[in-house]
Design goal:
Layout: E1 2-10, E2 13-21, E3 31-39, H1 42-49, E4 65-73, E5 83-87, E6 102-105, E7 111-112, H2 119-142, E8 150-153, H3 159-170, E9 174-179, H4 185-191, E10 195-198, E11 214-219, H5 223-231, E12 233-241, H6 255-259, E13 263-266, H7 274-287, H8 290-295, E14 297-301, H9 305-313, E15 320-324
Parallel strand pairs: 8-9, 8-11, 9-10, 11-12, 12-13, 14-15
Antiparallel strand pairs: 1-2, 3-4, 3-6, 3-15, 4-5, 5-7
Helix pairs in contact: 1-9, 2-3, 2-7
Length: 327
């Protein structure tokens, strides 16, 4: 038997229950992992609360990421005792995820945990931090270099934003952090932000072309914020878009793209080949140390995940929230 957070559907409403399950109930897979930690991401909160159409198969254990130790494996590439991290691949959407003490997975989804991190630290990074790394890599591939100008990070106190600010600052970029929580200015400056702006300056409709300011952008909000970020991006600049916390709409024009040559990169973190995943985790290991991680991390037990999901969606949490599935 093992403990898990199980989501069921009753009268078309999501019901989240802390349950005791038998390993025989686990889905198919050639590797069984003893989960030590997961993390609470925006998508997890949408799933647990039922505020978003995340779940594709019922009943389901949520949790789009996990870190733990291999218990059993039918794949010779993995042995009992191997430390692993898993992000995406449908976890918490179509396949039982990390909000449980056991997970049965495809061996193709596993990534070896970098030596630099414990399983707890890996989930302090979690899918949000891994996504931030993919965003930073997209801006680097575009050719944006430190010294090219300001880089904007929206939703900066969130999980993606906090890690993006840290990575970019560590790499030598000048980072401007956008937040609706001015009381968190010291927190963001400690992560490396050089300037803080109010998210309200970006959240409402603006001109299709605005004064050129940003050399690059990491955006986790979408909607008017993303449109305004594009409108103020410099000639041949780039935006890495990875979220929709403000909205899934894009109420803008093509002007920044055809008149300034701005590039908009869409960042999908779910289906990414393992080579690129390893590159992202290497970037994190090089530029995000344990002490900085701890400053942006709070830990909860699995029993607290239901309440904290609502708090995350209501903008009451900052940084990263690690879930200890064993308490």
């Amino acid at each position: 038997m093992f403990q898990a957070l199980l989501l069921t559907q009753q009268d078309k409403k999501t019901v989240a229950t802390l349950s005791q399950l038998d390993e025989l109930e686990l889905p198919s897979g050639d590797v069984t992992v003893r989960v030590e930690y997961s993390s609470l991401n925006f998508k997890d909160a949408l799933a647990v609360t039922g505020r978003g159409a995340i779940i594709k198969k019922w009943p389901l254990v949520p949790g789009i990421d996990l870190a733990g130790v291999v218990e059993r494996s039918d794949d010779p590439a993995w042995k009992p005792g191997d430390r692993v991290v898993v992000n995406g691949w449908g976890l918490g959407e179509t396949h039982w995820g990390g909000f449980a003490q056991r997970a049965r997975l495809s061996s193709q989804w596993l990534l070896r945990l970098p030596e630099a991190y414990t399983t707890r630290q890996a989930m302090a990074i979690g899918t949000a931090g891994y996504t931030a790394a993919l965003c930073v890599m997209a801006l680097q591939r575009h050719g944006i270099k430190p010294g090219d100008g300001e880089l904007l990070v929206t939703g900066a106190t969130g999980g993606v934003g906090s890690v993006a600010v840290t990575l970019l600052a560590s790499l030598g970029y000048a980072v401007t952090a956008s937040t609706g929580r001015p009381q968190e200015a010291d927190y963001l400056k400690a992560l490396g932000a050089t300037q803080i702006i109010d998210r309200a300056t970006l959240a409402s409709p603006g001109k299709p072309l605005q004064t050129e300011r940003w050399a690059g952008v990491v955006d986790a909000l979408g909607s008017h914020t993303l449109v305004n970020a594009c409108a103020a991006t410099r000639f041949n600049g780039a935006i890495a878009a990875c979220g929709l916390a403000q909205g899934a709409d894009f109420p803008g024009t093509v002007m920044p793209f055809i008149l300034r040559g701005v590039t908009l990169y869409g960042i999908n973190c779910v289906f990414v080949d393992n080579a690129k995943r390893a590159e992202a985790w290497h970037l994190l290991a090089q530029h995000l140390d344990g002490a900085t991680l701890e400053r942006m991390t709070v830990e909860i037990g699995l029993s607290e995940a239901i309440a904290k999901s609502s708090a995350l969606l209501d903008g009451q949490l900052r940084g990263r929230t690690v879930v200890d599935v064993n308490r």
